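Checked the freezer inventory, then went back to the computational side. Two predictions to log before the end of the day. The first one is the construct we discussed on Monday; recording sequence and tokens without edits.
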Amino acid sequence: MGVFVLCAWLLTAGLGGHLASVWIRQGGLRQRTPGVTRLPLWLGVGHVVLAVGGLAGWSAYAAGGVRGTAWAACAVVLIVAAFGFMMLLRRLPSSGRHSHGRRTAERHFPLTAVVAHGMCAGATVLLVVLGQT
């Protein structure tokens, strides 16, 4: 089960890496003024850093079988999922006061990649949690 979860996590990470590269190529790092971006830098960086840390913890569990690292990875993946859900909600179109009609970097995300990343992430979270029961 541990290796299967690791494969799902790596697939999710690959899709997330693709989305991050699109965001960077479209100027996501330069869109830091209020109202220009809907994805704060702390949210994106936190999502990536925690996901990589959780993946490292799960890899350590898969390699050595130490259950403590699996539980830590389980806790981290739930936080990562919450951050990802916040990013998804911020990506949805709105007509709020910060909506200027500009095409922000995250608007360039291919919908299929966003859906695939979300589905793989959901499966990964489910598998990690089920792997701990």
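The second is the one RB wanted added to the comparison set:
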Amino acid sequence: METNAVKITRILVAVEDEPCVLKCIAYAKEMVKKFGTSVALVTVTSPTSPASYGADPLLGQQPIIIPEVSEIEQQNAQKYLEELGQEFEGAHEVFLFNRIGSIKEEILATAVEWSADFIVMGSHGRTGFDHFISGSVSESVIRKATCPVLVVPSKCE
């Protein structure tokens, strides 16, 4: 009987700076410690939408984009990633990816670019109307990922 041994060497962890992600991070840390893998942390910031302050479409005034807001969000995300990356003791290597765009698309793209063997991510556990409106990032990632995905339920109160 032939067995196909699966070797996990690169774990991608999708994180966000919210308390609900702590359970997901705990699982990822345990896996990294147990397998001695490399780990990549990815966080995704949504693109800054134009502010409509002072803009009146009836007068032909266009909304403005304030680049400083996006820059501050990116700096905060990078600081969060760097602090979190230091917590992964025993990792072979730690990589940090600070992306802007669609959360599900950026997680999937990072997994392919970095050649992840495994993805760990949390689920907010939204149901009903919230789920209908926002969709599920974890469901989309599971459907389109080329590697196994561990979704850690982490309902945020």
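For RB: The first strand starts at residue 10 and ends at 14. The chain is about 40% helix and 20% strand. Let me know if you want it refolded.
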